[in-house]
């Protein structure tokens, strides 16, 4: 992974990690503090009192705009990602590419940060006896533990970039449902304007039931990530997406298409289309072709509009959620520190009592020894006097 932190940052990080490890060990094992002498305990208590819990020092960046590309397997997501890279280069837009698919055998584009350089997908899968999906999930979990370094690298280059293009695994449920996917998405969204590009296979969406399935997944992505979403109808060189736009804007046309099918799936789709009417009417949609490059200018205009929407609406919600999360974290840390302080004070009291008890025992032992010696000396003297008197009498 292309991570090059500065020396000062490294020293600070090592110091913070060291103090955090000590603090964690003491919180989990209060008896660990028994190994500290009084001076070390006082220094620890003083450092705890001087500790100030604050938010991350990183500041929010207006640029670059992060585009997270998500799509079903076979929707042309990777080809679309390649087209995005080519378009940014041809348009003199400064782009930064991040690949999060550990199972990709080969990529048609060059990635600045590649998860495959950090995590070995095959080794994780074989070493832990996991299947393909389990190996991808484990790789994402491992990568997300260091994702703050990825954000830091991009943040250092923010003034030199216009867009950050992020490719995700083809197994869409692994990224959208896992904790690592949420960590990665929130990591980007907390620092840069972030947009979700949901890639749809247009030829397959000519089936009304498949179209409704894509709408449902887009709805779930929108409410899961709480980020602006762009519906990208891919493969318009094979089938135009005009029918989809008409279905999204005219509820009666979509109902007529669904009425042509009498299956149970169609009945469920009709109910869902009625419930989601307001959602897909306001959904930002574009048609693109990853092969020919058609519609890319329209797509990037939609990205800019979504970035403005992010700044106006979504950022405030994220800030509120992050503030509430930080408040809970501060309260938890304060409780841990109070508990640690009490444990260390109890330990110090036990040490003082033990020391006082040892001194008392030594004093009593000295008194007993002195008494025993005095008693032994007087008895010998009396014996000697009796002996002397006896010899004198004889």
UniProtKB/TrEMBL annotation:
- CDD domains annotated for this entry? GPN1
According to the record, the segments passing through the membrane are none
- Keywords attached to this entry: Cytoplasm, GTP-binding, Hydrolase, Nucleotide-binding
Primary location recorded for the protein, binned into one broad class: cytoplasm
Q: Where is the composition biased (Acidic residues)?
A: 359-368, 378-394
Q: Where is the composition biased (Basic and acidic residues)?
A: 316-358
Annotated SUPFAM superfamilies: P-loop containing nucleoside triphosphate hydrolases
Please give the subunit comment from the record.
Binds to RNA polymerase II.
Q: What is this protein called?
A: GPN-loop GTPase
């Amino acid at each position: 992974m292309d991570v090059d932190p500065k020396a000062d940052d490294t020293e600070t990080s090592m110091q913070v990690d060291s103090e955090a490890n000590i603090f964690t060990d003491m919180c989990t094992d209060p008896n660990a503090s028994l190994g500290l002498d009084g001076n070390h305990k006082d220094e620890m208590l003083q450092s705890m009192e001087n500790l100030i819990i604050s938010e991350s020092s990183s500041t929010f960046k207006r640029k670059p705009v992060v585009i997270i590309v998500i799509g079903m397997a076979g929707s042309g997501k990777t080809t679309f990602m390649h087209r995005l890279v080519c378009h940014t280069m041809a348009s003199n837009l400064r782009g930064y590419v991040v690949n999060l698919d550990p199972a990709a055998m080969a990529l048609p584009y060059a990635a600045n940060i590649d998860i495959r350089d950090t995590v070995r997908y095959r080794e994780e899968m074989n070493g832990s006896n996991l299947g393909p999906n389990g190996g991808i999930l484990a790789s994402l979990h491992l990568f997300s533990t260091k994702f703050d370094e990825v954000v830091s690298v991009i943040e250092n280059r923010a003034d030199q970039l216009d867009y950050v293009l992020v490719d995700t695994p083809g197994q869409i449920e692994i990224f959208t449902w896992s904790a690592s996917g949420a960590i990665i998405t929130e990591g980007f969204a907390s620092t840069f304007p972030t947009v979700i590009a949901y890639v749809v296979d247009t030829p397959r969406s000519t089936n009304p039931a498949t179209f409704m399935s894509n709408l449902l997944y887009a709805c779930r992505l929108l409410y899961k990530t709480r980020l602006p979403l762009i519906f990208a109808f891919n493969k318009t060189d094979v089938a135009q997406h005009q029918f989809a736009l008409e279905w999204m804007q005219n509820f009666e046309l979509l109902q007529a298409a669904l009425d042509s099918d009498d299956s149970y799936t169609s009945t469920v789709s009709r109910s869902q289309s009625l419930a989601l009417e307001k959602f897909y009417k306001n959904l930002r949609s574009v048609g693109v072709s990853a092969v020919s490059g058609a519609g890319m200018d329209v797509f990037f205009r939609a990205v800019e509009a979504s970035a403005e929407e992010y700044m106006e609406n979504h950022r405030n919600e994220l800030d509120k959620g992050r503030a509430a999360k930080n408040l809970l974290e501060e309260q938890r840390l304060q409780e841990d520190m109070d508990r640690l302080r009490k444990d260390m004070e109890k330990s110090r009291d036990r040490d003082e009592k033990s020391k006082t008890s040892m001194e008392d025992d030594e004093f009593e032992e000295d008194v007993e020894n002195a008494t025993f010696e005095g008693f032994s000396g007087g008895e010998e003297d009396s014996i000697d006097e009796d002996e002397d008197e006896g010899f004198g009498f004889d």
